[in-house]
Design goal:
The protein is α/β, with parallel strands linked by helices. It contains 16 helices and eight strands. The protein has helices spanning about 1-15, 20-45, 60-70, 85-95, 105-110, 135-155, 165, 185-225, 230-235, 240-270, 290-315, 320-345, 350-360, 365-375, 375-405, 405-410, and strands at about 50-55, 75-80, 100-105, 115-125, 170-180, 180-185, 415, 420-424. Strand 1, helix 3 and strand 2 (about 75-80) form a beta-alpha-beta unit.
Length: about 425
């Protein structure tokens, strides 16, 4: 019985290591944070949206619209004069409203004459993330309610009404103000058009960093375990050349991974694309060749920084088994910005979280595409400079470690002039 107990204890010690426990804890924290976010979204869906409206029509059917807006939303501006439009837009923007809805002249008359009544919706969009457009869905629900209520009135009062008009009696013109740009789409449509980039690039970058990083750390551990690193360090080769060669080779393989993953993930997302009616270039939301160049530079420098960091972690590995634990920090640093950039907009994050995401070097190529679409070159170029400095400093630290005895003895020794040594 004691032998069985000893075997169980031995297996538990080998299985319950940081490499197995930390990923589970981290995944639990991710799901917990997602759950908290979803709870906040659910509360947001039940809150009344902040709106303004202008009713140019002031007839029977338009009063249905104003009645719903007054009862189901928090109205911060209302008028019957289209001349107040600019003032209304300023009021909605200053008070963090979601939209200004204009009920056009002859709204009721057009519907009764078998023509859809026109609504003009001017949206104030704060972010392009999936979570940032939840509030606009509440307004979409109000517009659907307006159509249902008008349909009831038409069917009850007019037996000869056109069926298509009765089912959907209004037409809508959308204009969105986002980052000092006027776009002729709703926030949901804009977010949908940008979603492929928002999801594709972060996932690809995360996978590249994890794959290439774990490869470097494992390689360093195997070289230590097989004593090949000890042989390499005794050769008449500069330590700087060794570090540069390892990073360059890993970066080349990482770039191959990037091309393969990008192609595969692009095909994956295209398979879910149901319509090609909307084109990014038609709304000045497409990336230019110079934008792709900046993204490529950001991705390459980030990959170099990731590999340098992984090589630094690899110097701490005693063997291949311990190397598996050291991949966890890299995985965590890659996954955090991936989830954040997929579901939110960097500009709408709280200052503390924004600073954290900026400090993580892997986040910058994930942020870059959306920032470049809206001409935020300062953020992208600043990120490239920051990651470049991070990479250079990390490489210098790795070179310094290679020049010490740490890789061979597990400790750093400094030689004195008289041939003695002391442990640091």
């Amino acid at each position: 019985m004691s032998a069985l107990g000893n075997i169980i204890k031995k297996e538990l010690r080998e299985l319950l290591t940081p490499a197995t426990i930390l990923p589970i804890v981290f995944i639990a924290l991710i799901f917990g944070s997602i759950g908290s976010s979803m709870e906040g979204i659910t509360e947001e869906l039940h809150e009344k949206p902040v709106l303004g409206f202008i009713n140019e029509d002031n007839n029977a059917l338009s009063t249905i619209v104003t009645s719903i807006l007054e009862n189901e939303s928090e109205v911060i501006f209302n008028s019957s004069d289209i001349a107040d439009k600019q003032y209304g837009l300023e009021q909605v923007k200053q008070q963090d409203g979601l939209a200004l809805i204009i009920i056009t002249q002859n709204f009721s008359k057009d519907i009764l004459n078998d023509t859809r009544g026109s609504l003009e919706v001017y949206w104030m969009m704060k972010g392009a993330g999936l979570f940032d457009t939840i509030s606009s869905e509440v307004v979409e629900g109000l517009i659907s309610m307006i159509n249902r209520e008008i349909s009831k009135v038409l069917i009850e009062d007019n037996a000869t009404v056109n069926a298509s008009i009765a089912l959907w009696p209004t037409s809508r013109t959308d204009t969105t103000y986002f980052k000092d740009r006027e776009i002729g789409l709703s926030p949901g449509a804009i977010s949908g058009m940008l979603s492929s980039q928002s999801m594709l690039i972060p996932i690809v970058i995360m996978m590249i960093i994890i794959m290439a990083g774990s490869m470097v750390i494992s390689s360093m551990a195997l070289e230590k375990e097989n004593k090949t690193l000890e042989t390499l360090l005794t050769l008449p080769v500069k330590r700087t050349s060794i570090v540069t060669g390892k990073i360059a080779a890993s970066a080349f393989i990482g770039l191959i991974f990037a091309v393969v993953y990008m192609f595969g993930m692009n095909q994956y997302f295209q398979g879910f694309q149901m319509s090609e009616e909307l084109n990014l270039a038609d709304f000045d939301l497409a990336l230019t060749s110079s934008d792709f160049l900046l993204i490529g530079i950001s991705l390459f420098i980030t990959l170099i920084a990731a590999l340098a960091l992984c090589m630094l972690l690899g110097t701490m590995a005693k063997n291949y088994k311990s190397a598996q634990t050291l991949t966890f920090p890299v995985t965590m640093l890659a996954m955090i910005p991936m989830f954040v950039t997929m579901f939110t907009d960097f500009d709408t994050l709280p200052l503390a979280l924004k600073s954290l995401i900026f400090a993580i070097p892997f986040s910058h190529p994930m942020i870059a595409p959306r920032a470049l679409i809206f001409n935020d070159y300062v953020l992208v170029i600043g990120g490239i400079i920051y990651v470049l400095i991070f990479a250079i400093v990390t490489i210098l630290i790795v070179v310094w470690v290679f020049k010490t005895d740490r890789l061979l003895t597990g400790s750093t020794r400094k030689k004195w002039k008289f041939g003695l040594t002391r442990r640091r």
